[in-house]
Design goal:
This protein has about 350 residues and is of the alpha+beta class. It has a single domain, classed as 4-Layer Sandwich (Metallo-beta-lactamase, Chain A). It is about 20% helix and about 25% strand. The chain has an 8-stranded mixed sheet. Strand 17, helix 5 and strand 18 form a beta-alpha-beta unit. The radius of gyration is 20 Å and the shape is globular.
Amino acid sequence: MCETGADPHDVLTAMPRPAAGPAVDPIALEPVDEIKITTLVDNVFDALLTGDERTRRASSGAVVAAPQFETGRTTPGMIAEHGFSALVTVRRADRSTTLLFDTGRSPDAMLTNADRLGIDLSGLHGVVLSHGHYDHAGGLAGLAGRQGVRALPMVVHPRVWTRRRLAIPGGTTEELPTLSKRALEGEGFAVIERRDPSLLVDGSVLITGEVDRTTEFERGMPPPHQAWTGSEWAHDPLVIDDQALVVHVRDRGLVVLTGCGHAGVINIVRQAQRLTGIERLHALVGGLHLSGPAFEPVIGPTLAALTELAPSLVVPGHCTGWRAQHAMAGAMPDAWVQGSSGTTYRLTAAV
């Protein structure tokens, strides 16, 4: 989103304290037999992508009216926009639970894509927001307006309500849409604010909460990204409300789902490893925020650390950027998979 680099000293002094080594009280994350992640909204949609045993691409079965065609109808495909939303279903034995992780940018893209995929969102058990940026929370309006969300739990970091803006030197200043807790609670969401890690779904889904910043190269947002402190606008490098969703697939390892990965994807994975005591990274899915001049210098060290972790599946989406995508595809050809709105990734326990 921003084009200028940050002063490393300013960023490092603003960072929360790191917590190296094993967690004092490790979290007992219950293993699951299966996780399915369906990308409801991503920056791209490619109808020509092929799937495999763990990747199911969106079919073109949905039909809409289109009088310009002889039949009066057409197949529209999925909506792509600069945003992210994923539907997460975890299964333990014969019990399944479904959560919504982020909701995209616009009020209607997530719902439209769910309809075209034949997904009924009325059975949601909860909503998790990765952070407060509007391209991850815009679909909440559509969700509430469609079916009502009485007492639907929503897990957020307490700083998700932070006012933020982009102030480009010599350019425009744009205040970003800010979430309203009062409005969300008025629509029926049961807002749960947690700074610390949270266990959901009978202990089988971990929400990281605030992520410790331990790497030297993941330095956060550049100076144009600012937050209102209550008295002034100040550089907001951390996006401290950034959190991820983590699941342990039995005998496979951790599956980490990020929204933008503002905390730094390696920081996030290391946090998941430290909290759970599980070293194996099985899959990484979501936005990694490696796009643009401020972040492209981070691609190299990120890729080096990620390659060492040797995940079986990597699906970088949303804000990852084409340079990072190309680098990951070249370095991890067996793990990297092109993301696309409407794709489902199914990861199962070892037989």
